[in-house]
User: Fold this.
Amino acid sequence: MTEMVYGTAPVREGEPVLPKWWRTVDRWSLSCVLMLFGIGILLGLAASPPLAERNGLPHFHYVQRQAFFGGMALVAMMLTSMLSPIVVRRVAVIGFGLAFVALLGLPFFGTDFGKGAVRWYSVGFASVQPSEFLKPLFVIISAWMMAASQEIGGPPGKSWSFGLTMVIVLTLALQPDFGQACLILFGWGVMWFVAGAPMIMLLGMAAMTVLGGMVAYNSSEHFARRIDGFLTPDVDPRTQLGYATNAIQEGGFFGVGVGEGQVKWSLPDAHTDFIIAVAAEEYGLILVLVIIALYAVVVVRSLLRLMRERDPFIRLAGTGLAAMFGVQAMINMGVAVRLLPAKGMTLPFVSYGGSSLIAGGIAVGMLLAFTRSRPQGEIGEILRGMRR
Assistant:
């Protein structure tokens, strides 16, 4: 009788945490993330030794670090995915406060590592990028505000989330970090749309984004240089985009062979922002399509499971996390094939980077926590009941 009413099996009393987690988690998405991490290690073995050699380090220095930080990311993902949505929200509130304070302190205590944008804290053995941790936590806070605004007599949560978004976007633009700013704005826009925002408001947001881009182009040399490089009809073969474009062309369908690629010797960011160029050159289009398919499976399966969710907070937060995860991957690969201007954005779970890996693990852990099967009526059943 319970299954007829609620549509899923009830929680088993006294069931241990691990069996309960394994029974309710989306194992397809989990498997795809693990495969992405494995591919990242494989590509790291090819892409990072030349950089280690140039820096006078052991050949597999960066691979070992990627495995270490990736292990931490996977542990963080597993632990976070075991939490209930309420606990995730509570943890996110505290984490967001810490990450936001760290973001505000970057102009005073941060460093740019010679890249022209102050985005990191140097802690000796590693660096920390607060914006990577801020992204998933921001999604949770905004979803909470929007969900609260849908309650009878609730606060103006949509307006609060809009104000918070503008503060974060402007703070990131001042670093400058327009890639992360656009990603946060996109994630918020998706949640706002799902929450029922009118189309005219979304068009207004798009117009404001274009206007902001024009202002940034005229006021930031860093931003203007990247846009000019993207718009120029001829690609300088000595630039990162030129090397990446040539590598993708050389790879063809099957690649030039494991270890035979040359782009890793020319690209300083071959192990981070342009890791997909290494994959395309050595393994060909086949591996690139596999990587795209893995990201697509995570996003599509998460959205399908969220469509059955009746809690508005879980629907909004999960949708925002899935959208950010997929779009970040699209941006990284789009830059490599020159569909988008350079953004300095990593490929989730594949690129090297401690902050990116651990923050990505937390984000996907939250997404897995929100898409776990729970004993509840599906939203379609509720709507059918209302029509009766």
Observations:
- Confidence is low (pLDDT under 50) at residues 1-11.
- DSSP finds 16 helices and two strands in the chain.
- Residues 275-307 form the longest helix (33 residues).
